[in-house]
Amino acid sequence: RVPADIMLLQAHDLRTDESLLTGESVPVRKRSSAAGEITGGQRPGGDDLPFAYSGSLAVGGSGLGEVVATGTKSEIGKIGHSLSSLEIAPPRLQRQTRKLVRAFAIFGGVVCVFAVLLYGLTRGDWLEGVLAGIALGMSLLPEEFPVVLTVFMAMGAWRISRERVLTRRAAAIETLGAATVLCTDKTGTLTENRMSIAELRLKNGKIFHPDKAAGRKIPKDFEQLAEFGVLASAQAPVDPMDRAFHELGLKSQRLRLVHAYGLRPGLLAMSQVWQKDEGASPLIVAAKGAPEAIADLCHLSATERKALVATLDAMAAEGLRVLGVARATFKGRKWPASQREFKFKFVGLVGLADPIRSSVPAAVKECQTAGIKVIMITGDYPATAR
Question: Could you give the CA distance from residue 16 to residue 53 in angstroms, rounded to a whole number?
Answer without folding.
Answer: 9
